[in-house]
Amino acid sequence: VDGKIVWQYHLWMSMLQRAFDAKYKQHRPAYGDVTCCDDWLSFSNFFEWVNKEVEYKGHPVGCALDKDIIVKGNKTYSPEFCSFVPTAVNSLLTDHGAGRGEFPVGVTFDKCRSKFKVQMCCFGKMKYLGRYNTPEEAFLAYKIAKEAQIKVVALQHKDVLKPAVFESLMN
Question: Chain-wide mean pLDDT for the chain?
Answer without folding.
Answer: 91
